Amino acid sequence: MLTHTGEKPFKCDHCNSSFSQKIILQEHIRTHTGEKPFKCDRCNLSFGRKADLQRHTRTHTGEKPFKCDHCNSSFRRKTNLKRHMLTHTGEKPFKYDHCNSSFSQKIILQEHIRTHIGEKPFKCDRCNLSFGRKANLQRHTRTHTGEKPFKCDHCNSSFGQKTHLQMHMRTHTGEKPHKCQFCDKAMSSRSNFIRHQKTHSGKTHTNSNSSL
């Protein structure tokens, strides 16, 4: 009933926090003491909350119990499902006051704000480059490590970026999503499509050193 009344009788001796349930207070106290009694039996990690251990265990088992009602997607965490649902509803509750942009996730709003202020907090530890988005740093790091985690299901090819895998897949499927509005041609590659469009707009450039 305390969740309805808003009463929080369980108070932390270390800070000003208070809680409606004793078990939540106990979990909170561990953030002060550093105690982590919930240990993973598959690796060396341990956690202060049982729920955190349960979420972590799914990274080993691959279990994704939170399923989307609108598509086949499923997730390990309920919060990830909630974020995903916004892609179906189109809701974008996170708005930026300095322009008309709005976003479905707070983290995407934060990344967008960095494009305005120029902040680049994600730094490469192998060179001097820094990035506004963590995902961009991860992609960049693969240029150093040579890691290619995106693998083709049809052949032995693998790629450092997901977009490169998607372009490669079109060589198997024959998909050509870039269609010319002036003629019947369609291309699988956007760069080839842009070059083709210039043949219609008169913006093609011939190599001055090429022989006639």
| CATH class designation of the domain at 150-199 | Alpha Beta
Q: How many helices in DSSP terms?
A: 8
Approximately what portion of the residues adopt beta-strand conformation? 5-15%
Look at the helices and sheets and give the structural class: alpha+beta
Q: First CA to last CA: what distance?
A: 87 Å
CATH superfamily of the domain at 150-199: Classic Zinc Finger
What is the H/E order?
A: HEEHEEHEEHEEHEEHEEHEEH
Rg, please? 25 Å
Largest sheet: 2 strands, antiparallel
CATH architecture type of the domain at 150-199: 2-Layer Sandwich
- Would you give the CATH topology of the domain at 150-199? Double Stranded RNA Binding Domain
The helical percent reads 40-55%
Largest beta sheet: what is the strand line-up?
1-2
The beta-strand count equals 14
| Average of the residue pLDDT scores | 88
- Describe the global form: elongated
Low-confidence parts lasting 5 or more residues at pLDDT below 50?
A: 203-212
Could you please describe the fold and organization of this structure?
The protein is of the alpha+beta class and 212 residues long. Among the domains are: 49 residues, Classic Zinc Finger (Double Stranded RNA Binding Domain, 2-Layer Sandwich), CATH 3.30.160; 41 residues, 2-Layer Sandwich (Double Stranded RNA Binding Domain); 50 residues, Double Stranded RNA Binding Domain, CATH 3.30.160. Helices cover 42% and strands 13% of the residues. Strands 1-2 form a two-stranded antiparallel ribbon. Strands 3-4 form a two-stranded antiparallel ribbon. A hairpin with a 6-residue loop joins strand 9 and strand 10. The longest helix is centred in the first third of the chain and has 12 residues. It is elongated. Belongs to the krueppel C2H2-type zinc-finger protein family. It holds the Pfam family zf-C2H2.
